Amino acid sequence: MKIINLLVATTIAASVAAAQTKLSGTGQCPQQPGERHAIEIGDYPGHLYVISKNVCTWTKPADIAGLKSKDHVGVNFTEIERNKARELSAAVGTMDNGDKYYVRLQGTATMADQKFQSSEGTWNYTGGTGKLKGIKGKGTYKCTPEGENVNCDIEGEYTLPSK
Question: Which one of 3.40.1010.10, 3.40.50.720, 2.40.10.220, 2.40.350.10 gives the CATH number of domain 22-159?
Answer without folding.
Answer: 2.40.350.10
